[in-house]
Design brief:
Length: 547
């Protein structure tokens, strides 16, 4: 690959690499992730510096991964220097089913550009294709162009060693698009390098994408923090009944609907952070447990929400939801009583004095309740844990609560709130730090070339979440108490995150349509201005942290 790159200008190098990487399908959960990792190693080892030092490029396998996926590392060292900057990006992508009839062209930027150039159903994407300034394809924006930028900057410093102000570590991660297993595994490698190579991580630069926030938005965005995420789950048990006697029960799907209306896209529960894009919760799944048709109302319904976190501890958000759901359930029972009374009144029947109850617990509260009923919860959880590995991680908590509830068999309607994977910690760089202050200086100098706005929290989900953690050990303990079998199904090295404490920023590629079939990266900024901006920031950080 180096032979194709070395005579090209920077922008052409990045475009060539982006097209090449896009052409290699690396959909999350497929062997394509392995193919892409192998190709990254091949590209890196074609660089002269790594031909001379092949051991400076290596991979790290994910433990117990059925596909055998791996992370890719390359270290460019400056003699007698500890200051190390990490350039990191992920190389897996989401699937290609959304391309429909164009699925065969999902990894072919040239074919997609030709198609969209005549695509009259969307004049904006048609104009972008006709301009020649945009590169299309699955992963073009999220985030193989970001991989390409990091590779080209690494190549630049290998060929201009006098400008290398410190050590430069390339980290390419697999498995970002669902569980972030790649970067989580990568933390141990970062720690190993820190100890064995005596490295001091001064910052990490993620090249994940940014996009317009509204129609006509021309700004490019740089972030000095990463939003967190928790998967807020609700196990909902109603009281089943025959549809011919519907008022005698409590339909679990009706409870779920009430919760969905309460939480889904509701700005009432978001954190108030001025000038930041703070997003509400979104429902990602809602389904009952019925697997065939009958005329019994659904006894159990499961649902979970994507909930972003920014500054508020995740455990506080869970308790906030618990209180709100408890009140919503009280209002639902009142509404059901009124409806039942109206139904009987219409038929001339006497009102029935029913006192339905609907209990709301966090998982920790539910375990405490079970103990009051004489159940040995520790033994039951240990028994269930033997079969937990047969379920998807998102299902383990639901299956465990179902298992526990069957042993209780109390016939009470209830909602149990808990957390399932993935959990992404939130973090941000403090404004008093060298990293933040140098970032502000560099961006101010760049304003003449392009419009860049500095924001705190990267609004999507990012591997940078795992490089540092802002929540305290006590806050995390409260969260883990409501994370069923967390240590077994999704062990997170919180202590390692806290020890590494790498200040991470996102200076990423720019484009539109991530995770859609219209995904495209804007070449003039991403391939020209961006790599220079990253190098300028890197130089400033190395200089400001020199020992």
């Amino acid at each position: 690959m180096y032979q194709q790159l070395h005579s090209l200008p920077q922008a052409k190098q990045i475009e060539l690499l982006t097209r090449h990487l896009v052409s290699i399908g690396s959909v999350n959960g497929t062997t394509g992730e392995i193919d892409l990792a192998d190709e990254l190693v091949k590209i890196l080892r074609s660089f002269p510096v790594f031909q001379q030092h092949p051991a400076w490029v290596w991979t790290q396998s994910l433990p117990h991964d059925q596909l055998g996926r791996k992370n890719v590392f390359a270290l460019l060292k400056k003699p007698d220097c500890r200051q190390t900057i990490i350039y990191h990006s992920h190389f897996d992508t989401v699937g290609i089913q959304d391309f429909g009839a164009l699925e065969a062209s999902a990894f072919d930027p040239t074919a997609l550009q030709a198609y969209f150039a005549t695509y009259q159903a969307d004049h904006e994407v048609q104009a972008d294709a006709q301009s020649g300034d945009w590169l299309f394809g699955r992963g073009a924006l999220d985030m193989k162009s970001g991989d390409a930028v990091n590779l080209v900057n690494l190549l630049y410093y290998s060929e201009h060693p006098a400008e290398l102000g410190g050590n430069l570590l390339f980290m390419g991660n697999c498995v970002e698009e669902n569980d972030h297993s790649g970067v989580i595994t990568g933390l141990s490698e970062l720690h190993r390098l820190q100890v064995e190579q005596n490295l001091k991580y001064v910052t990490a630069i993620n090249t994940d994408f940014n996009s317009p926030k509204y129609a006509g938005d021309k700004n490019k965005y740089v972030y000095y923090g990463a939003a967190g995420k928790m998967l807020t789950c609700c196990y909902i048990k109603g009281i089943e009944t025959h549809v011919g006697n519907t008022y005698s029960g409590i339909d679990s799907t009706l409870i779920a609907s009430q919760i969905n209306l309460l939480l889904n896209n509701n700005p009432q529960f978001v954190e108030q952070i001025p000038n930041e894009e703070v997003l509400p919760s979104s429902c990602l799944q809602l389904r009952d447990q019925k697997d065939f048709y009958n005329v019994q109302t659904a006894k159990v319904t499961e649902m979970y929400f994507n909930t972003f976190t920014y500054q508020r501890p995740a455990a506080d958000t869970l308790e906030l939801f618990r209180d709100a759901i408890e009140e919503a359930c009280r209002q639902l029972l009142k509404k059901l009583t009124v409806r039942q009374q109206k139904f009987f009144s219409t038929l001339g029947m006497p009102a029935v004095a029913e006192h339905k109850q609907l209990f709301v617990y966090t998982f920790a509260e539910y375990l405490a309740y079970l103990k009051t009923k004489g159940l040995n919860t520790a033994a039951l959880v240990a028994e269930f844990s033997q079969q937990a590995d047969q379920f998807d991680r998102r299902q383990v908590g639901f299956k465990l609560i179902d298992f526990l509830d069957q042993h209780l068999n109390d016939n009470q309607a209830k909602v149990v709130l808990f957390i399932e994977p993935p959990f992404c910690p939130h973090n941000s760089v403090k404004k008093t730090t060298v990293v933040y202050q140098q970032l502000v200086k560099v961006l101010k100098r760049s304003q003449n070339q392009t419009e860049i706005e500095l924001k705190e929290f990267f609004p999507y989900l990012s591997d940078s979440s795992y490089l540092a953690i802002d929540e305290t050990s006590k806050e995390l303990s409260r969260l883990q108490a409501n994370f069923p079998l967390a240590e077994q199904i999704y062990p997170l090295p919180f202590d390692q995150m806290r020890e590494l404490a790498i200040p991470a920023v996102d200076i990423g590629v720019y484009g539109k349509g991530a995770h859609t079939w219209k995904e495209r990266v804007y070449k003039p900024y991403s391939f020209n201005a961006l790599p220079c901006l990253i190098r300028e920031f890197s130089q400033q950080i190395w200089q400001a942290t020199k020992e």
